Amino acid sequence: MSANSSTMRQLLWQDPVCSGWKQDLEGAVYHLANCFLLLGFMGGSGVYGCFYLFGFLGTGYVCCVMWGWFDACGLDIILWSFLLATACLFQLAHLVYRLRKNTLPEEFDLLYKTLCLPLQVPLQVYKEIVHCCEEQVFTLATEQTYAVEGETPINRLSLLLSGRVRVSQDGQFLHYIFPYQFMDSPEWESLQPSEEGVFQVTLTAETACSYISWPRKSLHLLLSKERYISRLFSALLGYDISEKLYALNDKLFAKFGLRFDIRLPSLYHVLGPAAPDIGPESEKDDEEVRESAMPTSAQQTPPHSPLPAASGPPAPPSRARMSRPDSGVLGEDSASLVLEDFEEVSGSESFMDYRSDGEYMR
Predict the structure, then answer these.
(1) CA–CA separation, 228 vs 21, rounded Å?
(2) What is the pLDDT of residues 203-236, one digit of tens each?
(3) Which of 199, 222, 119, 117 is nearest to 152 (CA)?
């Protein structure tokens, strides 16, 4: 213990052991090595920060090897500098491997930046989603059908990457599907994992399209295992279905100049008061409708004494609103209700009258 304390006192308080200092410099390579080491230790964080850090450190240690070989002539300096330079090179190789492994195809990378990055979805989670669809991109030629009404089974979930898809029912145009929208989200949500069904609409590619597709069983298995991914798909599918419903609503708005609520079971009471001009023929029709809608008990009641006339003018009679009969078809969605309601209304055109997509766009 006393020997150690005497050594420490000698190092701290007595003259240095060096008998003399060298007057010449170590050489330019030595100073260059230290400059590279200084720059290397100023590196930041992240993948590219690690590239900067280990790149400059490796170069600095290589310069130390050269200085130990040519100027210092010290074997220990050469060995240590060589080991440190080799460690930096291995670290750079590992970073290149990780960067290449994390690289996604162009379509999937753009999909992540457009759809998942705004929601702050981790990249590792996104890779699991992409792995479920096997990183395959499918294509559709112009006028090629993705699904046929009443024939194509619902056995997958697809997301459109590029192009435009036309949705129709019974030959009538309903709405479009644009890039980064699900192509069959209503069909996916309409069935339980153990159920099977077929498409109720026809999906046709209006332009050259590309899309990715998840098999139904594989995706259900992933959603059952990963709760975060299940919530993510639930939010994305719910938003996508609402966009499709509002696309139908926007079409009504574009055709009639009014915006209707497609959640209503019937639109007749909305269209009735909206009629601007009522001619004598329509007034006669309204009177006939009111008479037919009156209950029989009211017609058989004996007449009462006339009421005294009011001071003001009589209020105009309200228009009769015939109730829509209940539908006996199970599973009838809001889109079919809208179609039937507009067909029942006389004197007005429904959006079933669009014979082509060009008429809708105009």
Answers:
(1) 67
(2) 999 999 999 999 999 999 999 999 999 999 999 9
(3) 199
Q: Would the pTM count as exceeding 0.85?
A: no
Under 8 Å CB-to-CB from 356, ≥6 apart: which residues? 173
Yes or no: say if 233 and 223 are a contact pair by the CB < 8 Å rule. Answer: yes
What is the rounded CA–CA span in Å between residue 181 and residue 184? 9
Alpha helices in the chain (DSSP H): 2-13, 28-40, 46-67, 75-101, 106-111, 123-132, 185-190, 216-225, 227-256, 268-271, 280-293, 296-300, 334-344, 357-361
Give the containing element (helix H, strand E) for 202: strand 202-205
In 10 A of CB 303, how many CB atoms? Answer: 5
For tokens 């959640």, name the residue. 263
Residue 351 phi/psi, 5° resolution?
A: -75, 0
Q: Which residue has the tokens 């100023």?
A: 42
What 3-state class would DSSP assign to 102? coil
Helix 75-101 and helix 46-67, axial crossing angle in degrees, nearest 10: 160
Cβ–Cβ under 8 Å, residues 154 and 189: no
Cα 129 to Cα 124: distance, rounded to the nearest angstrom: 9
- Kindly write down the DSSP assignment for every residue of 304-317, as one continuous string: PPPPPPPSSPPPPP
For 273, the token pair is 């008061």
pLDDT greater than 60 at residue 68: yes
Q: Which two tokens stand for residue 189?
A: 């949500």
From 1-5, 25-29, 215-219, the region with the lowest mean pLDDT: 1-5
Q: Using a CB cutoff of 8 Å and minimum separation of 24, what contacts does 127-136 make?
A: 128/222, 128/226, 128/229, 129/222, 129/229, 130/104, 132/214, 132/218, 132/219, 132/222, 133/212, 133/213, 133/214, 133/215, 135/104, 135/105, 135/108, 136/212, 136/213
Asked whether the beta carbons of 41 and 84 are under 8 A apart, the reply is no
Cβ atoms 287, 281 nearer than 8 A: no
**Highest averaged pLDDT of the listed ranges 179-183, 241-245, 292-296:** 179-183
Residue 207: other Cβ atoms inside 10 A: 13
Cα–Cα distance measured from residue 290 to residue 312, given in angstroms and rounded to the nearest whole number: 24
Closest C-alpha to 202, from 178, 167, 175: 167
